[in-house]
Amino acid sequence: MRRALRMTLLLLVGAGLLRVALFTDLYLRYVKQGMRPLLIASGALLVLLAAAEAVSGARRREDDGHGDDEEQEHGHGHHASGTPRAAWLLLPPALSLLLWAPPALGAYTAARQPAQPVTRASDFDPLPATSPLPLTLSDFTRRVRQDDTHAIRGRVVRLTGFVTPGGRDGDWSLNRIIISCCAADARTVKVRVRSPHTPAADTWVTVTGTWRPGGTLGTASAPVALEARSVRKVAKPVNAYTDALLPAPSE
User: Fold this and answer.
1) Backbone angles phi and psi of 16, in degrees to 5
2) β-strands 133-134, 156-164: how paired?
3) pTM beyond cutoff 0.90
4) Is 142:205 a contact under the CB 8 Å cutoff?
């Protein structure tokens, strides 16, 4: 690969990593939050390598009085330098990382993934008397399908996620996509919601309601579903790929 192409690729990829990780929160579309320092360090290292490549090439040209050292060696420039054609295919993704970011995972992804099982809880603490009770979608799922004390029965809960329309009887899904390491291992937690109106796809909402009875509470036969009392639109969180609790919506 010619020196100029090596330098360009190093610079583009390094600058792209710095753009998404240092100056924006776009990196959260690719990896979990804890990997930000590693992305910044990798981007900075690649930019430094590109700079070192440029300085090295300039010094060789000064010493030899010729152009690119690889061109000098072969005597023909670009075509004879042996640059693999596949190397040029690296330019579009490098440019896209710098100039454009793929859309965030959302309703399209969630609608095509089955609800993933949540980890099993060894035991359950008593639920606080707060009403409505804020729960993550994972905690609600555990209470419905694993808690044999049936503590969730009749409790008014508050859940937050984004909307996937569709489903039988006009139901829709409240979802959270969780990234453990990177977007490739993303999994979806879902709660079916019954309400008079279905919000638009990808809208972030807070739903207040009660568990919709069915099956046997505390077992896998119980539906992870909610009878909505209210649905309120909320702002999308900065880190949307967790199932963390969000602040209660202001009145």
Assistant:
1) -65, -45
2) parallel
3) no
4) no
